[in-house]
Amino acid sequence: MSRDISDVTRAQHGRTVHHWRRDITAAFHTWWTRRHGHAPPTGDTSARPLPTEQAGVRERALWRMRTTVKDEPGSLAALCIALAGQQVDILSLQTHPLAEGTVDEFLLRAPGELAADDIARAITQAGGTGTWIERADAHDLVDAPTRVLGLATRTALDAAELPLALRQLLGRCTIRSLPAAPTGGGRVSEGVPVEGALEDTVMRLRAPEGGVITVERPYLPFTPTEFARARALVELDARLGPRVPRGQDVLTLPAGNAITVRRAGTDDLEAATAMHERCSARTLSLRYHGPVGDAHRYLHHLLSPRFGRTLAVQTASGRIVGLGHLLWDGDETEVALLVEDEWQRRGIGSELLGRLVTMAVEAGSESVYAVTQSSNTGMVAAMRGLGVPLDYQIEEGTLVITARLDSPLGAAEGTVGGARAEAP
Q: Are 143 and 157 in contact (CB under 8 A)?
């Protein structure tokens, strides 16, 4: 896994804030990335089920394929003839003009027994170069304009959706945000032109708040068309400005206390800082895994929708007593919790965690991980309460718990921690 992480999380002396634990857990995350990595697919795709058209009809498989052809009459026709010879149907086609040649992107439906290597070989013989192919699914049947409009709508409703929208637009890629002024010092992000910069497999876009959004897809170069679409999404986000969806749930804890759970943003910085000041040093240490004297300095980053989503728990008087963060960490997703001392062991942590994991599932995350100390029995119990497979890695007192989300969510669905929802 790349160690070139967002410098916004760097603290004093070049240490990172919520990424520093990768020094300790690098082996674990390397193992996990190899299991769920984003390397280009090979011809061996038998691990994924093949979709079928109808019961009783022979199995057919969906594929996404890209290839580059010369920009001359007959080049596309040669590809179509080659695919027809393999009994492959072309369901959709997009063209991406380049300075030299054209990138053709196909959605194909092929006989189930036909391997990716067979399709690629036929395309190469027909004049295609740089051919890339991977298994597709039913979501790819949506045409490109409809998909882009849907992503634009999601981005317009919630600023935290921008990284997710970019990932769905561009396929499997790693997205990192680097603000112009990192919290706690560190290297200032390098400038990028207003119109952005495209370099083969890396694109850099001017973030709405002045930083840089870097998108990297090492296995497939970006085309100018993809770059223009990504830039349009970022420009839309910039024009709409900061925004957090409204809405809240009023819950009753097992002890009878009424609390409100809602999305939080940078407007809650003052109230969140006040909660920090009411927390004990031990509680802050369990959350931030290091010196806690200036823990509140990280709150602006944590509350920013640019880096994830935050849920706040507040009392009837409006005081924030708990925060739950879902953080986009490159191509991974982190969950983190902080509950004020007086409100611990009342089910708040489990309630927040269940809601965050549900958000992660809706965002398409295959897993979430939490970093804590081995002595933090409350966090361990909350993760176990999710009812999903867990992986543990511990070294020198630091515990990384990874929850795999490819199975039913158990306690993450419905009520969690014994809380009961009432009308908002």
A: no
